[in-house]
Each structure stands twice: as C-alpha cells, then as structure tokens.
Amino acid sequence: MATARPEDADAEGKDRVIVGIDLGSSHSLVCAWIDGAPRLIPNGAGEVLTPSCVGVGDDGRILVGKAALARRATHPWDTATRFRRHLGHPHAVRLGTRDYRPEELVALVLRTLVRDAEAFLGAPVTEAVVTVPACFSGEQREATRAACELAGIKVERLLSEATAAALAHAVDLVTDEARFLVFRLGAATFDVAVAQLTDGMIGVRASAGDDSLGGDDFTALIATQAFANGLPDTAGESVAFMRELLALAETAKCELTRRGTAHLEAAYGETSVGVALDGDTFATLTQPLLNRLWYPIERAMRLARIRAADLDHVILAGGATRMPVIRALATQMFAREPTTTIDPMHIAAIGAAVQAGIAMGDRALRGLDVLEAGSRASPTVASSSTATSVTSSSDPTLDLALGFAADVGKQPVTAVQGLLANALAELRKRYIDAPGQFEEHLIDLLVTQRIGQRVAVFEAAADAFHWRLADHLDALGSRGDWIRRVLAEGDDWLALDERRRFEWLDLAALGEAGLDAPLVPRWPEMRIMRERFPTLIGLFVSTGTLANWEAAFDALPASSRDRPKRVAPGAESRLSTAAVPADRDRRRKAWLAVALIVVALALCAFALWHGTLRR
Ligand SMILES: Nc1ncnc2c1ncn2[C@@H]1O[C@H](COP(=O)(O)OP(=O)(O)OP(=O)(O)O)[C@@H](O)[C@H]1O
Ligand SMILES: [Mg+2]
User: Fold this and answer.
1) Is residue 390 within 8 Å of residue 224, measured between CB atoms?
2) Which runs of consecutive H residues, i.e. helices, occur in 229-340?
3) What are phi and psi of 330, to 5 degrees?
4) Which of 104-108, 142-146, 399-403, 457-461 has the lowest mean pLDDT?
5) Alpha-carbon distance 7 to 297, whole Å?
6) How many other C-beta atoms lie within 10 A of the C-beta of residue 42?
7) What's the pLDDT score for residue 254?
8) Residue-wise pLDDT tens digits, 362-382
9) Which ligand lies nearest the alpha carbon of 212?
10) What confidence score (pLDDT) does residue 384 get?
C-alpha cells in the first residue's frame, strides 16, 4: 500500500512517508493520506484509539496503550497516564526500577503508533505531522519535538489540533471561501481557532485556549459529587479508591451521553453512595466549567474581529464535545447547530494526515495549505497576504495570561490578589524591555475579569497596577503614559455599576467586531463612554470604528436619530460629569430658569405679605 500514488506525488515528496499523529493526553491516533483520502490506522487490537498510557509488566517489559491501561486498576504505581501535560517540565515518573521523563513516555507512545503505521503501510515511516494543543508553550513544543526524535521520527510539522480540525473540514468543502471556528475540547485542554479558507489557503486568524480545562474536569466533578453525597473525606486519601471512583465517574459521563441518564454507585468501607445524573443535574453541576469556555471563545473572536453571525461553520473537535451539555452550549453560543460530520475524536488526526498529504505533494491537495504561527521551525506567516491577523499561539505572553486566567478561575477571591501580583512580577521580569508586548499583556489582564471572579480580578488588577508598577511607569516612556491613563480612569470606572460596565464593554467590542444597523443608534451612549473613559474604551474599540460609528449615526435620518436611544437606564446619573448632549443641556437650563422665577415670585409674595402685616 502506498501513501500517495507516484503519479500524484511530486519529486520532492517521492520517498517520504509522512503520517499524521494526533498526540492526545488520553488517546492518540495515527492516520495516513492514502490514494487521495485519509485512512485511520488501527493498532494491534484493531482499534484506532491507542490509550496514551505506559506501564511496566511483572517481567519488567514496557507496555504501551491498551495493555498498559488494562493493568492500571491493579498496578496503579506501575502505570503512567496523562503525562503529555508534563512535556517541557522536569517531571519524572517512576515505573518499575527507573524514572521516565515526559519526553520518554511520549516517545514510547509515538513509537508504538509509528510501528502500527509501518505494519499497515508496509513501508518505513520517515516523518510525521504531530498535533499539539494551540496553547502549548514554546518549551512544550520543543519537548514534543524531542519526544519525536527519541521515537526516531522527524517532525514535518507541529500543527495545532484545532487547526488540524479546520484542515480536515476544509478538504471536504466545495467552496473556495469560508470562515470557521473550531471548538475543541479534549481530555485535558480546550482550544478555539478562528480560521479562514481563501483560495485553498487556511489562515488561522486567531486562537485561544485554556490548557487546564477538558473532559477530565467534567469527570472529576462527578466524583466530587459522590463526596457531596456522603463519601467520607478519608476516601480521598486512598489513591487506589480515587482511581476507581474516577473510572466509575468516566463511565457514568459516557453513559449520560449515550442514554441521557446515568447512575454511579461508589462504596468505601461501610459507606456506599449513589450519584444520579440527567441532563439538567449535569448542566448545573458543571456550570463553573461551562462558564470558563466563554472566555477563550470571546478572546479568539475579538482577536479575529469576527461575529458569530459571520461564521460559515462551527466545527466540534475533541471527545469531550460529544457531551450533550457542550453541544447545547455551542448551539446557544453561535445560534446554530455545530458541525460534527467528522467524528470529533478523529478529526485532528485526519487533519494531520491531510497536512502529511500536502507535504508529500499529493496533487489532489495541491493549493491547500495552512498558515499558522509557530507551526514550523521558521514560520512562513510573515510573508502571507491572506493571514493578516495571525496571532502566535506559542506567544509566551499569551501563555502567561492564559495560565493566569485559568488559575483565577479555580481560586477563591482572597487568592486573586496574590496570583495577580505573581503574574505581574513575572511579566515585568520578562517583558519590561519588550516594547509592544506589555500593553497587549495588560489588556489580557484587564479582560481576564470576564472569567471567574470578575469584579475581584478587575479591582485587584487596578490595585496591583498602582502599587506594582507606579515606580516603573516613567521608564516605560509612552507605554508608561498609556498605563497611567488606564489607572487614572480605573477608579471612576470601578465606581460605576458593574453590570453596566460589562454591557458597555460588550457594546464597544460589538462595534469593533462589525458595525451593523441595530448598533448605530447607540452611538450617543458610546460617545459618552468614550469621552469619559477614552483609554479603557480604546482597549475594546478602535478610533477608526468610533469615527465610522459617529458618521453612520449622523447619516441616519433625523427622525430615527431623535427617537429615544437605548441609553442604558441610569447612565445619565452615573455619568453626571460626562459630556452632556446639547439638547439635554438646554432642557436643564430651561428648568433652572423656571425654578428661579418661582423662587423670585415666592420672595415677592413673602415681602408683600410681611409689609401688609407690619402696616
Ligand atoms: N461519549 C462520550 N461522552 C462524554 N465524554 C466523552 C465521550 N467520549 C469521549 N469523551 C471524553 O473525551 C475526552 C477524550 O477526548 P480526546 O481523545 O479528544 O482527548 P485527548 O486528545 O486525549 O485530549 P487532549 O487533546 O486534551 O490532550 C475524555 O475526557 C473523554 O472522557
Ligand atoms: Mg486531542
């Protein structure tokens, strides 16, 4: 079997056998581009999902995949799972008689996949396109490359999983132009990518994610509920029991997807408890996790300057998007059913195989390519005209912001100040001398308020900027002035009603995403905000958009301009020092004049009455 027919491959790709590998925290897959189509390759057990699991047998032999997973229940100490997240960190795991670095464990999984592929293809595999979460840092990407090297394969390209999913979807499209958003929730990570297909080129316009949010967290909440229902706290100290409980919770979660209800029974010592789940109870239980999905989506859409209505497709990827609660949320977020034509658990591997087909020069794929920052050793995005606003997913400032955002989501209010201080200290250490990045990062911290403890974060941010940065502002030149202006506006801003603040920011962000007819009449409200908080509002909406907004408002027929606008109730009193529109000013003066006349008449009447009495 050949991966690409000779007549379909160009000279450059002739002797190369490249496969696509989706390296997941819970499962990994290998897929090849064969005769113009992707083929998922089964492992020795005949399954396309290979557990990312490594263990040591009684005889000291290394076990990988299903065989290792099967022994986990009885030999928890000799089995390693979920090690991909430790890539890039010095986190060794002891199995049997020796310690394994994360790269070594990943390499064992990769080698197994490559062997399966070689057996299937009947040819040695030379290279691989390997997927990584979009939010993987530079160190994590380097460690992934090191793992591939240990496994004896050359990395053709590291591709973000969400981008791979976009590519898999794009291959089947008949149009040349499409805008799509990939919503990928795996076992341990969440990614969003906004991509645009233009003449066969997929430009990733923006991506964002949360590297500590995935299907495992939903499983963990079910297990937590068992404690809430009466399991003793001491049960949590038993590693073996906790593994068993999590396995039961995982089964219940998948059962819930399949049947709409599920029941978990757990027993520890004398105590036995049950957890009954249906769609509603699960949605309530997992609400805190569902809330955390909004922020990366909003961020990616804001960076890509796109509105939900302008997306042609919303594609689900990652096994956790099988949960009805996630599908319902995605439907609500984008006001349409998301696309699941390709199995979300296979889509990233298929996309990686498409990229492998492109690299091997398959003519069927000629013209299709991906522009994604950080995906090659020397990125090609800078020279691209189609990918105008590509953002680097391996940008360490973004990592820091996302890490901070993820931490904040999990911490009580009291811990937020400390977290913020740490984030700022780290930020200053790394970027104080890197022009341009500082503002971008500050913006991230400011908008982090939108997740978790919104108000507390914002207030902590304002405070921390005051005391952490005040002495550095002068050294920062024009950037320092900019921060000073944010701080100056901060106190007044925080004095406003919280709900309104968010409404105004949304209004500004909506305007920036694309001015449309229903938004234009709200210009007077935005003008007041802009005049009072020019820097803060400037974070969300550009000067150009504001000018267009004003012009569009002025161009409205007088009748629709004079109609009462949807000025947020109470905005006038809260914004009393803001610029007051001229007609309201005139009305106020008229009332003042009437009041003065009434007072004068009253005084005259009093004087006359007093005079009469004295006479
Ligand atoms: N039927 C189902 N119902 C609910 N959840 C499911 C179902 N099938 C799979 N999952 C969940 O999907 C997740 C695994 O998905 P996937 O294989 O895409 O993740 P991964 O690639 O290993 O993780 P990551 O990409 O985050 O590293 C697990 O959390 C699993 O519980
Ligand atoms: Mg995955």
Assistant:
1) no
2) 239-259, 279-285, 287-304, 324-334
3) -65, -40
4) 457-461
5) 43
6) 16
7) 97
8) 877 867 777 764 333 222 222
9) 1
10) 21
Per the DSSP assignment, residues forming a β-bridge with 31 are: 20, 40
DSSP 8-state class, residue 514: -
Q: Which residues form ligand 1's pocket by a CB distance below 6 Å?
A: 24-27, 161, 186-189, 214-216, 219, 250, 253-254, 257, 318-320, 322-323, 345
**Length of the chain counted residue by residue:** 615
Dihedral angle of Cα 362, 363, 365, 370, to the nearest 10 degrees: 70
At residue 469, the pLDDT reads: 40
Largest CA distance in the chain: 125
Pairwise pLDDT comparison (552 vs 419), residue with the higher score = 552
**What is the C-alpha separation between 441 and 453, in angstroms, rounded?**
19
- Ligand 1: which of 322, 325, 350 to mutate, judged by most atoms within 8 Å of the beta carbon? 322
Q: Which amino acid is at 68?
A: A
**If we measure between CA atoms, which residue out of 246, 290, 238, 296 comes closest to residue 269?**
238
Q: How far is the CA of 415 from the centre of ligand 1 (A)?
A: 31
List the structure tokens of 581: 């529109």
Q: Which residues have a Cβ under 8 Å from the Cβ of 555 and sit 6 or more positions away?
A: none
Pocket test for ligand 1, best of 81, 185, 345, 347 (most atoms within 8 A of CB): 345
Q: Write the CB contacts of 316 (distance below 8 Å, at least 6 apart in sequence).
A: 183, 184, 326, 327, 330, 338, 339, 340, 344
Closest to 31 in 3D by CA, of 142, 102, 113 = 113
Strand 127-132 to 154-160 pairing? parallel
Cα 519 to chain centroid distance, Å, stands at: 27
pLDDT recorded at residue 92? 84
Q: Are 23 and 158 in contact (CB under 8 A)?
A: no
Are 490 and 501 a contacting pair, CB within 8 Å?
no
| CB crowding 249-261: b at 16 or more within 10 Å, else e | bbebbbebbeeee
DSSP helix/strand/coil, 98: strand
SS3 track for 186-223: CCCCEEEEEEEEECCEEEEEEEEEECCCCHHHHHHHHH
373 Cα to the center of ligand 2, angstroms: 19
pLDDT of residue 257: 98
Tell me the HSE value of 8 on the side-chain side, using a 13 A CA sphere: 18
- In this prediction, residue 218 carries a pLDDT of 94
Which residues have CB atoms below 5 A from the ion given as ligand 2?
24, 186
595 CB-near residues (< 8 Å, 6+ apart): none
Q: Report CA torsion sign: 255, 256, 259, 264.
A: positive
d(CA 121, CA 18): 11
- Name the 3-class secondary structure at 160: strand
The number of beta carbons lying within 10 Å of the beta carbon of residue 195 is 29
Question: Which positions ≥6 away from 247 have C-beta within 8 Å?
Answer: 73
580-604 residue pLDDT tens: 334 444 555 555 555 555 566 666 5
- Kindly report the three-state secondary structure assignment for every residue of 358-390: HHCCCHHHCCCEEECCCCCCCCCHHHCCCCCCC
pLDDT of residue 403: 53
User: Distance from the CA of 217 to the center of ligand 1, in angstroms?
Assistant: 11
Closest-CA residue, ligand 1 atom 13, reads 187
Distance spanning both ends of the chain, measured CA to CA: 124
